[in-house]
Amino acid sequence: MKLPDHTDWLQDAKVQKLCAALGVEGGKVYFVGGCVRDALLGLPGSDVDLSTNILPQDVTRLAKKAGLKVIPTGIDHGTVTVVVGGTGFEVTTFRRDVATDGRRAVVAFSADMKEDACRRDFTLNALYATSDGVLIDPLSGLQDCLDRRIRFIEDAGMRIQEDYLRILRFFRFHAWYADPNAGFDPAVLNAIARNIDGLKTLSAERIGMEMLKLLSAPSPCSAIAAMRQVGCLRIVLPGSDDLLLGPLVHLETTVDGTYDALLRLAALGGERIAERLRLSKVDARRLEWLKDAGYGGVPLPELAYRYGYENARGAALLRAALAQQAISTSSLTPLEAAASQKFPLSAKDLMPIYQGKALGVKLATLEQRWIDSDFRLTRKDLLAQD
Questions:
Q1: What's the rounded Cα separation, in Å, for the pair 148 and 156?
Q2: Alpha helix (H) residue ranges in 66-182
Q3: Tell me, what DSSP letter sits at residue 325?
């Protein structure tokens, strides 16, 4: 079987140049993982990752011989980045696990593709393709991919114990790729339930990255519900509740199909979210703002004017989900108008009568009156109130 001819990265001259450079001495180079999976599913391309039976030092030597720049991004683990025409491609030597502790693995290089495939997580991620698009399926993952079935490679419990982050990856992949009508494999959920304490050993950064990716899926509701049922949610987000998530996702889909992971996180709630997920300062501030505005009472047009349309949209959706009310695209139009408003006065209009602190207070008072008038008061109206 071959990948579709229109697969963009197969036609990429940069990738083909790299494959040719590494194959001059008989070495083999393969596309692997997400880019192959997404090509089969007709989804927009993931990052192009390459695997090879060539040792890292030989990848480096052959690439430099072809005049390409090499960056040893993870050479101890078999990965180098080769830059072709300004684009970097990760090339990783086949590996096998020597030892694992639930967070990281000690690996040895291998010349066997099947050994490399066996150290991956799910069968649909253990698919390879040659530089001319011929598919190689060492672990019979092709049908799982086409059926949108998320299946651990061999024993689910063993794969999880190799890296406990795979619990969250399972739910994330379910949200993004699984057949929504297929449900969850009870045996896999049982394996996850037996190993959930392993989540406590993971760094906040790794958990946070997975949760944000999961919550960015078009519909993460069933995955989050399954996490709650097996006990994962209470570990990664103590105090959270997915009761509002379904209504919020429905409203997002109804309004404009824009999915906001932080807004969904605000709907889930929980204790010390920013700390537990190690959110960036920007994301942490926005999350707190969404929670305050979504559960608060400041009029939505005022929020749009002061904080922008996107933030006001989030507050509107969260409030509608809380109130179990419908919302439409047209109901958000006033927020777009409010976000574009410009206050018709400036400090100069009130000087020299007002100075210093009094000037700031007066200006803020008039601005609030203008907002409360639904932005109808003119400059003349406002000055008349002075």
A1: 17
A2: 113-118, 142-146, 156-162, 165-177
A3: -
